[in-house]
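INFO  loader      accepted 1 record
INFO  loader      residues=408
INFO  predictor   begin
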Amino acid sequence: MESGDLKIAWARQYMPVLASIRKRFIEEKPFSGMTVGMALHVEAKTAVLVETLAAGGAGVHITGCNPLSTQDDVSAALNTRDRVHSYARRGASVEEYYAAIDRVLDARPAITIDDGMDLIYRIHTERQDVLDSVIGGCEETTTGIHRLRAMARDGALEFPVIAVNDTPMKHFFDNVHGTGESALASIMITTNVLIAGKRFVVAGYGYCGRGLARKARGLGARVIVTEVDPRRALEAHMDGFDVMTMNEAAALGDIFVTTTGNAGIITGQHFPKMKDGAILANAGHFNVEIDVAWLASHADSTVHRDGIDTYMLDGMAVHVLAEGRLVNLATPKGMGHPVEVMDLSFAVQALSAEFIAKHGRDLAPGVHDVPSAIDEEVARLKLAALGLSIDRLTPEQETYMNSWAIGT
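INFO  predictor   done
INFO  writer      dumping tokens
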């Protein structure tokens, strides 16, 4: 068996929720006759999602959503599957990256599945010829949802998109546990530095940021949080973390990780204040949070090695991991979120895509929440896979919870 197939087989055995959904898809074929276009991180767990959609009758055309997050052997393995075409390649140039997206769109997908909204953006700008083929789409990143909601506000979004990112199952597990563990794992395996005792700066205290902060504290780090939202900043303070501005944190931190999904978080005003040997990484989707261009233009010299770029500024070293791209996938040994976490997120993706296949034509253009029943079904399937049972409301409890007339 080739290395890509081995990786996919390893992931598949830890994804029981998708296995349950795939079994039903094989029988019902909800995507029969449809093409699904995807721009995701092409690695083993994603491959299991692709297999699940193909089992449901879909023709799948997929490419990467980040130039450094593709595992080439997995991409090659996907091209051996029936009805699956992968155009992803690690290290693609910007031109190659968008050429691959265009190849996905040349298949005229009925459903899009995005990680960062690049497919949808391309359809609405350069490839409007595809618009009449698309029933709807799914988006699973915070960054992508921000962009989509901006499109919807401007009246520019031409079809319905399910905000897979915004479900409790995505927030509580993928964002908190997945980002927290995988970002730290990639930082540790890339740098081989100790986390315990370090001043660990987390930019942003959304779901990803709070998960990363908690995991870093669990490893013994002294965690600092920077925020722009006063409520989240207060939450971080009440959770026991130091809260300050990035200007203040810049001089204190040993390791910095951005999780905001916004641009210009660590910039030229911060780098000169940092300690010699400061390590910088990004856990947001796009490489816009750390101003790497400023470092490159101001560095006395630069050393590139194994996922670490070292910039020398007046004799002081600043180390940037994975070119400022998504650290849990773009480092040479980055494996992305843990398998069990992505089993849940991709289960929501699969069921949301099925919802679009069945109901997309009835939805208005815009951003739509994942139906609560889908999120709850994924949770129930996971509990069943774990052999866990939960209570159910009695008829009397349901009456009490739904009544305003019953008092003390």
